[in-house]
Design goal:
Length: 90
């Protein structure tokens, strides 16, 4: 586990820090406090992904952002992603 676990709010779908990205929007046009604009638009997820697909999709970004190897990034995401709201019921 890297010790760089971000403490700021994360997108509850892709784990991207919400402070550094555009937030998603709810069906009524209000700003989502839970999801980023890449994942969530007008109250719906922009992509239908499984948790596993989301993890694979996020590995390259995590490698870059946290300066990890691919294996480290995968195990980091495997432990982090299931704690996010979108994947709680999956
Ligand atoms: Zn997201």
């Amino acid at each position: 586990m890297p010790n760089k676990t971000p403490s700021e709010p994360l997108c509850q779908s892709c784990a991207y820090p919400l402070a550094t990205t555009e937030k998603g929007s709810e069906a009524d046009g209000s700003v989502s406090e839970d999801y980023c604009g890449d994942c969530y638009h007008d109250g719906e997820f922009t992509e239908e992904l499984t948790l596993k697909e989301m993890i694979e999709k996020n590995i390259p970004t995590t490698v870059e952002n946290l300066n990890l190897t691919i294996d480290e990034a995968r195990s980091y995401l495997v432990s982090l992603m299931p704690t996010l709201k979108r994947w709680q019921s999956a």
